Amino acid sequence: MEPFELKKDLERLRKNGKDDETVEVKSWGRLPSSKGSKTFWESLSAFANTNGGYILLGLSEPDFTPVEGFDSQASIQFIRAGLNPQDRDALKVEPVPHHEIHKMTVDGAEVVLVSVSPLAVNGPCYYLPVGIINGSFKRVGDEDRKLSHLEIYELQNRFVQTKTDRNPVPDSSINDLNNQLVASFKQRLVETGSRSLGTDDNWLLRKNITTPIGELTIAGLLALGSYPQQFFPRVIIDVAVHPGLHKSPIGTSIRFEDRKICEGNLLEMVQEAMTAIKRNLRVRRVVEGLSGKDVLEIPEEVLREALANAVLHRDYSELAQNEAIHVDIYKDRVEITSPGGLPNGKRPESILDGYSEPRNRVLSRILMDIPWTHEVQGVLAESNGTGVPRMFNLMREAGLPVPNFKIDISSVTVELSRHGLLDTQTNEWLVEKLGSDFSNTQGIALVLAKELGAVTPRDLRNQTGHDSEDMRSLLDALVDRGVLNQNSQNQYQLATSSVNVTQSEQEVLDAINKTTPVTIREIATKTGKTASSLRPLLRGLVEAGLVVATAPPSSRNRAYLKA
After folding, report:
1. Which of 15, 56, 92, 270 might form a disulfide with 82, Cβ 3.0–4.6 angstroms?
2. Which range is the signal sequence, renumbered to this chain (predicted)?
3. What domains does the chain contain, in order, with CATH numbers?
4. For the segment 43-77, what is each residue's pLDDT rounded down to a tens digit?
């Protein structure tokens, strides 16, 4: 949770004319009305159940100026009474989140700031007078929304190790197992010398695939079953291809360009989903050494890891069994959403810590011995904490943004960008410069040179993870091919034979120097041109190697130097 900065945060609220996802303002008088009191506790519940936040008391909306007659001391006493666990009669929320209460001054008047931290214990934090079902909230934008039954369940089990995957599946038996997959599974146990096999026939019980009375466990059925959907109809992977950048509204003529419902055991579902995804992504030919191969626009290993994580870490509790894993393919990205928030108290900022914290421990152990087909080496889930860091590295190496994880109370979504070297315009430009057979790293080097005006070995190392000296050798090779020019020890620019500039471009060049970076606004002031008319001129000058940009195009800090 970011620290509250009164000047900056108040300026943002006044500019937007409304609250936001981190700050809620209440316009109390001396003391809140009955409705004002209720909405205060709802907001406190929402912040505690989500990512924390701040409640600012004593300002009016939408101008956020001090309320006449606001009594800061009386308000503080009122809040402290409602957050005192020792006084059950006055207590308003439970469990009480960590909080701090401060007096502050706005435009010469006292206001009260209540800082609410995210819950560090099982929740949800709810408004006691109306009960847990009607009194539990989450923060969405500037709104406090009631939690669903599944969200309440997720928060009730946020910091405990659940044992859902050990539960028996009523009316199931070993007759519901996929015999071929069981044989492959057992063969791997033999090859790895697993002690679970023993000297008798009880190895299925020892691996928690069956229960003592012969029924299958949830983990056993999902991992090794012939058709788990007989018992869990909605435990599927739903792959949908959308025609645009967002889901089409109901009633539109074309909602999906393609759709595949993937069923079977977890391995079969992941394999079917991979086939459906690959069918709807672009491929291109890349060179590796003396040979070439077809490469998917998003690395296959990244997609497999994301799908394996989804089936391994999703929630299989009774409430979540109605939720499918959704794979949504848009024109610019692929989103994979699985039911269930982060398990066992794991926080979003710790996703890359390399520490595996499986929600489903029995299932995790079984999937470590479920082999992929002959086309792919390894097992369905390694469960050693290296998968997500590996995804990040592979996306960088492919010239793509790193995965974006969107964490909700009852779901986790990983967003994989399709905008990399296979973007149609970028790929056509690279083919023009390098020919049809170029490596990802060569492509990344040219894209960086184009966007920044110059690329360094360090830039390439940061983007790809490769050694700086190896990247210097690659850049030198591109210089030898006449694709890049080296203008200093470390900087490489796109090569230009002879550049003829227009009068407008020359005016822009005259406004830029080699020592002090200038922004587009400063160039606009010097030339009398608008920012919108300058952008294509600057883009052309950067591509021609006459100007160097100090930051990527999307950065607010982008400025320009003469090359």
Report:
1. 92
2. none
3. 6-147 (3.30.950.30), 164-230 (no CATH), 237-417 (3.30.565.60), 424-494 (1.10.10.10), 503-562 (1.10.10.10)
4. 999 999 999 999 999 999 888 999 988 999 999 99
